[in-house]
Amino acid sequence: MPWLDFGFSIPLTTRGGTLAEMLAKGERLLAAADAHGLTAWFVDHLQSGDRPMLECFATLAHITGRYPALRVGTLVVGQGYRNPALTAKIAVTLHTLTNGRFILGLGAGWKEDEYRAYGYPFPPAGERVAQLDEAARIIKVLWREAPASFAGRYYQVAEAHCAPRPEPPPLLMIGGGGERRTLRVVAEHADWWNADYYSPDDYARKLEVLAGYCRAIGRDVAEITPTTMAGSAWRATGRAPCADPAGRLSAGHVRASPATRMRSPGSWSSSRRSASSMCNSTSSTPWHREHGPVLGGGPPRFS
Quick one: average pLDDT of 183-190? Predict the structure, then answer.
């Protein structure tokens, strides 16, 4: 029977409040996710103006030690912030220490201001997507072979060992909705796919494009779990322990079951509308006012 699985995006930066308030809200979300078997997701950014911003993997190490049964993932790691071999090593370490509860979300990277501020090169979008492709190749070969070697234009490893090598390895989720290049990378490498801030019709079209790329390489699109991240907000009841003081929840991650994703994109679109109708029952949070509407807007698109 089709189902939708929801998770929470844990805030790592303050938005109109204090650091203490952000941490307290995060604790409520984490406690709810832990109690109800949901996934906790963590963004990967380095700065948000002059507001506090917690680093993704350091936070994950702290959280997974405090919530050992919690499933966690990155939404998504900017491939340009760390050498991909190091990212692969961090991922298998977290996967091992959490008994298989870590999901590596990986993206091309888009937030130019923090690239510049922290001294990272910020090449054109097409080059960043090419780097994403090579990063995914290195990560997967390190998880599956020993010693592992790969010589690409941007990244290389030579006779590298990434032990322990858990079996199965972590899930690799690739984020992005660009129809000319990014979805090709998804088709070739991803276990899960994430795209955010798209309308149901746009999301359905991208599923069709992804299915076409999968057919071209002989892969069944049903092997890839579609997910979306939307900054939805809904009115919390007395039974929801994780609401902020205004009675809202700010961000959620939705994953479709195999039965849902094997139906037509129109059926997925219908399910997506049902989910968004449930989630959009109140006004937007400060996140949406800064970053655009719940459906549409969001970070820059890659082709």
Answer: 98
